[in-house]
Each structure stands twice: as structure tokens, then as C-alpha cells.
Fold:
Amino acid sequence: MSTLDTRTAEPAAPAVTGRTPRGRRRDPRRSRTAGHIPLGRRLRRDRTLLLMTVPALVLVVVFHYIPILGNLVAFQDYDPYVSTNGVTAMLESPWVGLDQFERVFSDPGFWHAVENTLVLFLLQLVLFFPVPIALALLVNSVLRPRVRALVQAILYLPHFFSWVLVITVFQQILGGAGIIAQTLRQHGHEGFDLMTDPAIFAFLVTAEGIWKDAGWGVIVFLAALAAVNQDLYEAAAMDGAGRGRRMWHVTLPALRPVIALLLVLRVGDALTVGFEQLLLQRDAVGPGAAEVLDTFVWWTGLRSQDFSYAAAAGLVKGVVGLVLVLSANKTAHLMGEQGVYRK
Amino acid sequence: MTRNVEAPRRPQPSRRRTPTRWAAPARPVWEEPPGRAGLAAKGAVLVLACLAVLVPLWIVVVTSLSSKKTITETGGLVVVPRDITFIAYQELLSGGQVTRAAVVSVLVTLTGTVFSMAVSILCAYGLSRPGSLGHRFILLTLLATMFFGAGLIPTYLLVQTLGLTDTYLALILPSAVSVFNILVLRGFFMGVSPELVDSARIDGAGDLRILWQIVMPLSRAVIAVITLFYAVGYWSAWFNASIYLSDQNMMPLQNVLIQLAQKQEIPVGLGQAVKAGNLSGLAVQMAVMVLALLPVAVLSPFVQKHFRKGMLTGAVKG
Structure:
């Protein structure tokens, strides 16, 4: 299946990752290292290119790499007021070893956040994940180009709305002071408030996610569908396969690698479930239902000013997340090798 | 001149090529025509999906344009617009908190997007000539950040240490570059025909000139997509403002919307108009929402046809 590999799908298209395709020689015309050029000359030749990467590199080092060192506060009893700036405060704060981690692991609040994170992740996996696939199959079956483009434009739109906006829209429609509840009340029925009900909060979050991003998720599957060899359908039809069997034996196998890849990547991201989305609704529903790992770190760290404790919790999440991402990535790569390069 | 050097497009399946774009293309002979029931069900689901997106937006827009009288009469659920009035917008945009927040949002979005694009395009081009000195190392340095984040607390402490709190730089710098966007740009820059680049080099063009006059004009589509991504990112951002800014007067639009919608606070300066009785609080809320969604809703359809390529890169990033 070649849909995800732009190299095979479009011969002139760029290689997407930085890696040279394995087992294939680099185009000598594009290689700047053809022959042996001394370092000094290469430096002079490529200095403009190197300089061009400097601004981005500086930003990434300052805002990604340096804060990693800041995780050292997780091993301290950090007191921001011991000194005037963060660095000296860090140097003067006492080291406490793994005490903060012990606190984290014996905190029922932390485990509650872990539980909520996993429940939300699983629910989204079961309810959210299949929606874009189904939508893509539907959109793909629309033949009229104008109608198709219109449907796509409408479905993509909510992806570009901010979470603030999405949640506000939901609140205005479904909330206790929302339009539906008010109309019901005006006609003598009982009102309701879906936005503050912890019992259904997980479903509400999933519904918001679907409204916002299911349409956007369609793109990848549509691309995969566009790359299906149309001859396969004809051959299947010649062999007597009806609509349903063609879907089962041609379309779905074509989508399988993409589905598997996205699934694996999603699992790698399991500990991150909608930080902004949940933070915005945390006050309305209460931490019982809305507290996930990210909001737990935010609350303990920034609200309660317990920086070291929050950093420790964040570090635990980061390390587990890294392991998940790396293994998911490895799996995807293995599958990718199999699915993307094998014709 | 740039037209004919563009990479050949993927041949479209023939069924998409139709003389009139509204008409359905002819079916292949082997494909049985769809049953009436199936067609109806399919159409119904698609129409419902589109309505699920459009109806809430319609209600928001219509309510923001309604007078207090209409809103009270309908009990809040305005579906059919009657006596349209722009009073909510007039009040919001006549100075005061919302006007200021909108200006802040527009300025932060513009500056941030320009800055991010400049940095990203330069970096993407710098990494797009294979075999150049150190490009693999720099690429790995950037790629590694996609696998782990430093965490909220250390980032917060850093921004504080750098003295960025309570400045607009705190809204721009920490999230100024997206490695993913750089990779997408780089992928396209690498697709520009090397012959073209080489001939420009022989003609004496330096790297900057090649980037500006050859590579960028050829990558217009992807630049449009990435610009939209960055702009939407800045426009939608509220979290950095909520933790790094303490001055209410500096808050961008999204943060004002949060206060308005979640805490039911009427923006400063509007209380009089609402009390005076000719303006509905609901209309004010809806009008702020329209302000927040308008730029995005207007811009994204224009870039829509290029989305697929950007997203594909996203799917293989792992």
C-alpha cells in the first residue's frame, strides 16, 4: 500500500522525513558531499544554510531543551521566593532526592488523574476513532466534485476553532443556561445541564472532540482512498463481487495500514487527552470527573504553587509518555516498513 | 515562468474529470447504480453531519444579530432571524475591553505568524539541501522535541526567569516554532527540482536569493497552509496568556471569551447598555463568539484544497 508514502505515490514529490530512503542511493546531483571535500570548505560553502537554521534552533534549544534541565526541581523542595530569579532560587533550594516522587505515588489524587486519563483515552479510542473512517467512506462515495468539496469544507471547519469557542458553543446549546434547556423550560418542561454533569462528562468530552476534529481526520483516509487502484474494483466486480464485498475486500484492506498506523500513534499519545479542553471545563464539572494528568500538574503546580511536586508528577507523565511514544513509533516504523515500502 | 517547472501532479482518477463540475461523472460500466434507499440513507447521514457543524454556528450568528426583544420572545432559541440589529457589535467594537482584546489578538496573531513563518521557512530551507554540513544533526535536534516535552512547570519557570511574564513576547516566543511545520515545509522545499536550483546557483544566486525567488514561489501552496496553521494557533491560544499575563487589559480575545462565557461576566463597559434594556447579554456573548470564529471561518476554505498534502506529512511523521 503506497498511500502514505509520497515517494512512491508521486515520483516527483519530496521525501518527507529527513531520512534518506534505505537501500536507495541518494540522487548524486542533490548530494553536497559527493567526493571528499575538506571540512573548512564545506563550512564556507554551507555557512548561509547553517545560519538560516540558527533562529529556529535557538528557539528550540531555549524553549525545549533548557526547560528539560528545569525538571531538576522535581528532586528539590523548590522555593521560588528564596531568591529573585528562577535559576538562583533553584540553586539555593534544598535537594530532597526522590521525596517528591514518593509523595506523588502515594497521592490518591494522582492515581485518580491517571484513572481519568485512561478512561477518557479508551472512550475516545472506541467512540471517536471510527468516526473519521466512516465519514471518509461516505464522502468518498460522493461523486459530484462540487458537492464533495462543499461537504469537505464544512466538515473541516470546526478543526480551526479554538477550544474556548467549541466549549462555549456546546455550553450555549446544551448547557443549563443554554438554548435548548431554556426553550424546554419556557414550554413547561424540566431543564437540564449537560455541561456540569460529572456522570456524563466523559461522553461530553468525546462528543466535543468528535465535533471539532472528526471532519479533519477524514483527510488522511480520503487520501488513502484516492490512491486505491481502481482496477481492483473492476476486477472484483468482474469476479461477481457486489458493492458490499468490494468494500470488504478492496476498500477496507486498502485503509488497513493507515488505520493501524494512526491507531499506534494514538496509543503512543495516550497520556495526553485534551489538556486545554479539560482545563476549560474543570471548574464547571469539578476535578472528580475532569482531572487528568496534565490538569493535575497545572493545578498542583501553578495554582497551589507546589512547583517541585507538580514537576515530579509532570516528569513521571513525561517519562511514561516518552516510553509509549518511542514504542509506538517503533511499532509504526516496523509496520511502516511493511506497509509503506512493500508494494 | 514558474508554472511549467512545477512537479507533475498525481494523475486524477478519470471519474473526477468532468466537463460540468456539478454533474456526477459517468459510472464505470461494471458498477451497479446505487439503490434509491441506499442513496437516501447516505445523503441523510452526510446532510446530518454537515448540519451538526452548521446549525450551532447559525444559531450563534443569528442570535448575535438579534434584538433583545426577539431573544426574550423566543426564550433564547433564535432560529429564524427577525429584525436584524448590529447593536451588539456596535457596543463591543466601540472601545472598551472587547475592542482592546480583539486588537491584541489581531496584533499578536500577525506578528507571531510573520515571525514564525520567517524562522520556519529559513530553517526549512537551511535543512533542505541534502548533504549540507551538519544538517542531519540539526534535524535530529529538532525531531527529538517531537517525542518529549519539557513539562509545564519547568517551562513556566524558564519564562519567568527570562522576564517574559506580563509581556506579549510570552505569547509568541515559547510556541513560535513548530517542528512539524518545519518538516512539512522542508519536505516541499526538497521537492523543488535540483536542476533549477543548480542553474540559479550557476547564474550567481546565493542561497537567500534562491529561496526567495525560486523555492518560495514554487511552494506557495504549502506556505499558505502552514501560514494558516500558525495563524490559527496564535488566534486560538489562550493558555499562555492565562498563565503568563496578569494584567486584564493585556488579555487576548479568547481569554475574554472564557470570562464571558464560563463566568457569565459582561465585559467592562457594556454593563450600562445591557441594563438599559436594549441589548441582550446573550447577544453580547454570541457576538464575541462570532468575532472569535470569523477570521478562521473566512480564511480556511481558501486554503482547503491544499490541506491534504500537509496532513499526509503529518501521518508519516512517526
